[in-house]
Design brief:
It is built from six helices and twelve strands. With 218 residues, it is α+β, with helices and mostly antiparallel strands. The protein starts with 9 loop residues before the first helix and ends with a strand. The relative contact order is 0.21.
Length: 218
Amino acid sequence: MKASTRSLPALAVLAALTIPATAFAHPHIFAEARLELETSADGQITELRHVWRFDEVFSSSVMLDFDRNGDFVLDNSELASISEVVTDSLSDFDYYTSLTIDGADGSISLPDPIKVSFQDGQLLMFFAVLPKEPLPLDGTIAVGVFDPTMYAAIEFVTDDDMVVTGASADRCSSRVIRPDPDEVIAQNQGSLTEAFFSDPTGNDISKLFATRLELDCK
C-alpha cells in the first residue's frame, strides 16, 4: 500500500482503487450491518460483534481489483489481502465503532484481523472489538457505528440488527436510537460550515447522525 493511502479510511482505500478521488461529503459505499453486544454471566460486556454486507457495486469493484488470477473468485490469499488492507486502515478510525459510558468515550481494541468473505456477489466483513477496560453493565452505555469521513454508510435496516446477547442480555433495558437528520442539522448549524463538507475527516459531527444502541443499566 502506498504511504499516501494509509491515512484514508479502509473502505475509501479499497474504493480509491477504482473510483476517482472525490470529496467525502456524502456516502459512496453502502453496507447493511448487524451489531451484537455480547455479555457474560457476571454482568460485563465482553465483545462488540460486527457484520457488514456491502452493496453489489462496491463489491464488484473489490472483486475486479483483488482477483489477481482473473477467475472471478476471491481465493483465500486474495481475501487475506483485503483483510490486511481493511484491518490496518480501520485502526485509525476505531473500526467505525463509537463506545460511550455515561457520556464519556470508551476505548476498544481489535484482537484478531477482520474476516472477509464474498457471498452471492457481495463482500462481507466479520469482526469483534473488545473493551480495553472492563465494561460492567452499569449506567448508560451507547454504541454507534459510523464512518467519520461519511464515505461509507453503515446501515442497520431494522432495530433487530442491533441487539444485546449472552448471559446478561436482560439485565439492562435497551433501545435503538435513529437520530433525525433535520434535528441534528438544526441543532448544529454552527458546525456545518463549508469547511466541514470539504473535509469532514477532522469533525465528530457525523457521530450525531449515527444509529446507535443505547443501554440503560441504572
